[in-house]
Design goal:
The structure is a single chain. This protein is mostly helical. It has a domain at 81-327. It is 75% helix and 1% strand. The protein is built from 25 helices and two strands. It has helices spanning 3-10, 13-34, 42-60, 65-78, 80-98, 101-112, 118-133, 136-153, 158-175, 180-189, 193-221, 224-228, 231-240, 249-259, 264-282, 291-304, 313-318, 328-346, 349-358, 364-381, 385-402, 407-419, 429-438, 442-445, 450-464; strands at 306-307, 320-321. Helix 1 (3-10) crosses helix 19. The longest helix has 29 residues, at 193-221.
Length: 478
């Protein structure tokens, strides 16, 4: 018996649930007291309280505090890349604002996109970019930011646009062979990558179809009079920035680098530097001081943020970037979430909860439901999308095999419940990232992230009615 199994056999289900119950109650209290401002600091401290409660439970079972700290360290190490990406997204958003890239996206987007079809268009555009790049995070950090800005300029609430962007981005993330979660889910279940992708189409296509229908209906409820008068916005953009299609060279380069599997860190850093170069060539009204004055302006914009004032009040609210400093709240949340998740993992609480879910029933449907519940639980507790795929993948692979179910059943369920629901949880790394990058609270986009909460239900429907539940191929002796 390895250490993880030993911990899981020691701790009782009631003990494993104590930190989760306390965390949920405290988070609910926070939301009631602070509302959307809870993410500004109080949620972070609540996660630390939850970690402290989990450590007390662990000490009761004589689990060394050092092993808990070591697991927290491992968890923090695993999100180092995500933290660097967040800082670079902050710098890129500032760079692309002062270079005129984001204003150009808004300028041409307002003219090219039919306001009535904007929301379903946002879903489709995000899906295409995400399939091409294999990353929902990169999609939000590039085209997602622009779509949010265009939506605001058209008078569409940011939460609705964010829901459309996230729905499309996670659709593409699930189906792209370049996606890390897609490859991870297939590997954990023991399925081949393209078999896994083809099998996901059965649940994913109905989910995205429903999503597009919902956003079409929402589009028809938006007052078209609100969206028709945009000439003032276009004039204000031209007065403040030099707008040319050449500005799109930089986003094209960044997307091309990501498609070529260049590290997102390198791609985003390159995009930031190229954006600053464009300021010199195109935005002469900004690049007008001495060398030291311009250097100071660049560094302050990248690190602390920047606000560009125009003659249009709507644009003044759009042309703001918090720079790297604007991402620190999200990074703070991720660090605290990793503390809670690391301690929960080290004391065996996550394994114990997964085993309890597995024991709930013996039918095929209960197996699918238990896997889904396990993915949701780990997304809620460990606050990490990858763990929500790895832990249930390890826990349930044998059970699927014993039921004579092909591994793609498990890999599809891991994606339909682990990958897509992570963004719906404010303290999960994905929820914190998307909220920070798009500048929209999870509570604002939650009900509009249609694809993300329909996907788990679609999996349960297919399991309940035994639709496309593939059995293992039987090998006969010759």
């Amino acid at each position: 018996m390895n250490l993880a199994d030993h911990k899981a056999s020691q701790i009782t289900l009631l003990s494993a649930l104590i930190p989760i119950v306390c965390l949920v109650l405290l988070l609910a209290l926070n939301v009631f007291v602070f509302g959307d401002e809870a993410i500004s600091g109080s949620n972070q401290f609540v996660l630390l309280i939850g970690g402290a409660i989990a450590s007390i439970v662990g000490m009761f079972y004589k689990i060394p505090f050092k092993s808990m700290v070591n697991q927290v360290g491992d968890n923090l190490k695993s999100v180092t890349g995500a933290i660097l990406i967040l800082l670079l997204v902050g710098s890129l958003s500032a760079s692309w604002l002062i270079s005129g890239i984001v204003p150009a996206m808004i300028y041409y987007g307002i003219q090219l996109i039919n306001p009535t079809l904007f929301l379903p268009s946002a879903v489709i555009i995000s899906a295409i970019i995400s399939i091409a790049t294999g990353s929902s995070w990169s999609t939000s950090a590039t085209i997602g930011i622009a779509l949010i800005a265009i939506g605001k300029a058209l008078g569409i609430p940011a939460g609705i646009v964010a829901g459309a962007v996230i729905s499309g981005a996670y659709f593409g993330d699930k189906l792209s062979p370049l996606s890390d979660t897609t490859n991870l889910a297939a590997a954990m279940a023991g399925s081949s990558l393209f078999t896994h992708i083809r099998y996901m189409l059965y649940t994913t296509i109905p989910s995205i179809s429903i999503t597009l229908i919902v956003f079409m209906l929402i589009s028809f409820t938006i007052d078209s009079g609100e969206l028709s008068s945009n000439q003032n916005i276009l004039t204000s953009i031209q007065e403040s920035f030099y707008i040319t299609p050449w500005l799109f060279v930089v986003p094209f380069v960044v997307i091309l680098l990501i498609i070529k599997k260049v590290s997102p860190i390198i791609a985003l850093f390159t995009g930031t530097i190229l954006g600053l170069v464009l300021v010199y060539f195109f935005q002469t009204s900004i690049f007008s001081g001495s060398f030291f004055e311009n250097y100071s302006f660049y560094m302050n914009a990248i690190s602390s943020g920047v606000s560009i004032q125009t003659t249009n009040q709507t644009l003044n609210g759009l042309f703001i970037s918090g720079g790297m400093e604007g991402m620190l709240g999200t990074i703070w949340l991720i660090i605290c979430a990793m503390v809670f998740g690391g301690i929960m993992e080290s004391i065996g609480a996550l394994s114990r909860i997964s085993k309890a879910l597995l024991a709930l029933g013996d039918s095929v449907f209960s197996l699918f439901a238990s896997t889904l519940a396990s993915c949701l639980t780990i997304n809620l507790t460990a606050s990490d999308q990858y763990l929500s795929i790895v832990v249930p993948g390890k826990m349930f692979s044998k059970a699927f095999e014993e039921k004579n179910l092909a591994p793609e059943n498990l890999s599809r369920t891991l994606e339909d419940s682990g990958t897509v629901t992570s963004v719906l949880i404010p303290w999960n790394t994905c929820g914190a990232y998307q909220s920070g990058v798009l500048g929209v609270g999870v509570s604002e986009y939650f009900m509009y992230a249609v694809f993300n909460y329909i996907s788990p239900f679609m999996t349960l429907i297919f399991a309940a009615f035994k639709i496309k539940i593939r059995e293992r191929l039987k090998v006969t002796a010759t």
